[in-house]
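Subject: for your reference before the review

Hello V.,

The reviewers asked for a structural picture of the protein, and I figured it would be easier to keep everything in one thread rather than splitting it across files. Below is the amino acid sequence we used in the manuscript, unchanged from the supplementary table.
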Amino acid sequence: MERIDALKAQDLAELSELSTAEGFRFIEGLASDSAGGAPTFEAPGAFGYAWYLGDKLVAVGGMTLDPYVSEKEGRVRRVYVHPEHRGTGLGRRLLEAILEEGRATYTLFTLRAATPEAEALYLSLGFQPSSLPETTHEMRLLQEPR
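And here is what came back from the structure prediction:
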């Protein structure tokens, strides 16, 4: 796993195709941003992680400032694991890295769970159902960012 600011569009091609086939558009958006040279995780407070097996990208995700809440909230974004690698713990480890880094900046994590499987993973990591705008789950931190 490596920390990233941006990804090459060709690295995202397979994940974009797979996620679109499953009805998810957020990896396609990430691929489009990358292809256009737009920063993907370069904004202040944003960061991302990519997981490669050999030269194949098998998982991606990150955190940005939550555009729906306020400046102390980090939004878990664009988390996707290749279908062949789900259930192996890879997604959990990716999310643990994202959350660990986010603790240095944010007091609240928010996200939108797209599937029951994703929801189960988020709940197991400590997220709770949320009524915040554009959010299905949140995790409030008890301490201020480091």
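For the response letter, the relevant points are probably these. The domain at 44-140 is CATH 3.40.630.30 (Aminopeptidase). The beta strands are 2-4, 47-53, 56-65, 73-81, 108-111, 128-129, 137-140.

Happy to draft the paragraph if you're swamped.

O.
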